[in-house]
Amino acid sequence: MKLMNAYFVAVYSSQKCTLFDSSDVDGMVICHPQNQDISPDSIQLESIQKDISFKDIPLNDDTFHRPIFNNRAGSAKIIVVIPDSWISVTQHKIDHLVPISLAPLAALSYATETTFTAPEALMFNYRQVVLDRNQTQLTVFACSNEWANQLCSPFKMLGASCLLMSQTQWADASVRNTSWSSLRKHALSIYQPDKEKNTKTKRLWFILVLLSLLVHSGAYVYFWNLQQQTEIALIDRQKTLTLISEWESDQVNSPFAESILGLIQALPTSVRLMQFDAGFDQAFLQVTLPQRELATLIERWREGDSSLQFEWEQLTADKPSGFNSEVIDASISISKN
After folding, report:
1. pLDDT for 74-103, tens place per residue?
2. Which residues span the membrane (predicted)?
3. Please, which contacts does 267-271 make with residues 24 or more away whose CB atoms are closer than 8 Å?
């Protein structure tokens, strides 16, 4: 099944108005070269519009047709393309560069001057080309709101969204991008003094919302991982404590066992016991602790009980912790001298 296209294109000429599917825009440009006919009067325009068929539109396969409008009002999007001669198209050379923020106002000034129409009753667009460092060419496209409404009225009556542009504007826009949002920037529109400000505000809000989502997503992932690691650590610690308890029960009246248990119970809070294994005269501990505390811990144990012999080995590379110190995993072997 063929997917619904994003929009349709209605191309006016002095004789008719032809509808095209957006997938056939290349053929439209070839079949309808720029037309320099004079603008029709109201009677001629009504005659052209009367012959427009809204029921079906031919696609690439002439044997296949489908409806333009379905049962939902406003479901169709139509771009109305007219000859350049049907609107005011003027070019103006300016002896200085026009800032982007001031270009719409400059174009509006030229449009009102050439069309003798009040700004609030005018639709326009412009194209700015920098000729050199000190000169700009401003091409202004303009027409009255009344004329634009007459051209779009057959489509708006059926609830369609309409964009109006000349063939030159269409040619420029369709070469770059044929998406509806891109073509909207090239179509004729009324002057909106706060358009740039509103666009910046929307862009800022979008960035803020995106940053907020990223921060919250990152925080959620971090705390979820932290919770998982905490649960695993608690399970491992419980297993270790159970193993120590079982070993203690087997070592009745053993001075070595009492010494090992004393060392384990005296571990500082910064040291986490991860694994424990012991026999009659030898014990193995695996701990996680800040690197700078490992040597201090071994030295303290040696000073506390000279009858024990300690050997240790670092198991993992240094890794950053939440306390701005390097945390390592270490294996410690304890045996009788």
Report:
1. 467 899 999 999 999 999 998 888 888 888
2. 204-224
3. 268/293, 268/297, 271/297
